[in-house]
Write a structure and sequence with these properties.
By secondary structure, this protein is an all-alpha fold. It has 16 helices and no strands. The longest helix has 36 residues.
Length: 341
């Protein structure tokens, strides 16, 4: 039994726990930087963006024929004011889709716009996360799960076996508090968790299941919390992937913009691009402000066990939904403004 416990405890590394718990939202966009450069600027002769650019040029040529026919008809009908102003859009399309092999002006403009929007997003994160509030809120939940995973196997043991198991667990847990304090300072939530763990480890009587679950949570709660944390990271990566996909479709939207339709595809494309940016910024504001509430509440109620399920539900389910709703409203407003102008 002791050998099994030692093998179980050896699987945990507090350094890797700190590293995983310190993943922050600003790192996600940075991890996607290479994908953007590879798609929009690196060897576009042979990648997806180059193929879509050639398809956009094909659409532009086809729609240009329709445009020329319409333009000549207007000239013959002596409507000179409209034909002269209509020449602006073909000129813009030719300019933006030129030189497709080495990155078109459209790809450079798209990448520059994405970098500008990410800069705004980074400023939002930096302004509201000066004290690494979001990392602390996530690590508060991760630390509870880590401690629970180490102590819970001791629950079914009795007597000396339980004492040995608790002692081995304490040896793995103690470095965690030092690592957290080195990273975040002497925060109240670290002291609270350390006190709770010591209450379990130094008890002279067998620890009941109620005591374990009240302080550390159950396995089902841990699995649910991990699912919510994974969900919010999945949403952020999905936003990055969606923005990249939207950027890749730019040449097609631009090439089809000479079609004689009321709604120009380029306006729809721009609306989608900015709507995704609004969703990202809105999501980060929501999770950072709620994380601030969690950390502040933990500091004010040092003797109280906090239920972080509400926070994880917020960042894993509610924040993505709310940010998409805000993006949809903002996108519609942006589209109407561009279309009217």
């Amino acid at each position: 039994m002791i050998i099994i416990i030692n093998i179980f405890l050896a699987q945990f590394d507090t350094n890797s726990l700190i590293e995983n718990g310190s993943i922050v939202t600003q790192n996600i966009a940075t991890n996607w930087d290479k994908q953007w450069i590879d798609l929009l600027q690196t060897n576009t002769n042979n990648n997806i963006y180059g193929a879509l650019t050639r398809l956009g040029i094909f659409f532009a040529v086809g729609t240009l024929l329709l445009f020329v026919a319409q333009w000549l008809r207007d000239v013959l009908e002596n409507e000179y004011s409209r034909p002269i102003s209509s020449l602006i859009m073909p000129f813009i399309i030719v300019l933006l889709l030129a030189n497709p092999g080495n990155g078109t002006p459209l790809s450079n403009l798209t990448l520059g716009t994405r970098n500008f929007l990410n800069t705004i997003n980074q400023q939002v994160i930096t302004t509201t996360n000066n004290n690494q509030i979001y990392q602390q809120a996530i690590n508060l939940s991760v630390a509870e799960d880590f401690v629970g995973a180490l102590l819970r196997p001791c629950q079914s043991l009795m007597g000396e076996l339980q004492n040995q198991c608790l002692t081995k667990s304490k040896e793995k847990i103690d470095p965690l508090w030092g690592n957290y304090r080195n990273q975040y300072g002497n925060q109240p939530w670290i002291n609270r968790l350390e006190t709770q763990v010591n209450q379990i480890i130094f008890n002279t009587y067998p620890v009941s299941e109620v005591e374990f679950n009240s302080l550390l949570g159950s396995n089902s709660q841990i699995n649910f919390k991990n699912l919510l944390i994974s969900s919010q990271f999945a949403f952020q990566n999905l936003m990055e992937a969606t923005m990249l996909l939207t950027a890749a479709l730019g040449p097609i939207a631009l090439g089809a913009s000479l079609l004689p339709v009321t709604v120009k595809p380029i306006f729809v494309w721009l609306t989608g691009f900015f709507a995704i940016a609004i969703a990202k910024i809105s999501f980060n504001i929501i999770i950072l402000t709620t994380a601030t509430v969690v950390v502040d509440t933990s500091a004010q109620n040092i003797a109280t066990n906090l239920d972080l399920t509400w926070f994880l539900i917020c960042i894993g389910i509610l924040a993505p939904i709310l940010s998409l709703v805000i993006a949809a409203v903002g996108g519609i407003t942006t589209f109407n403004a561009m279309n009217n102008s």
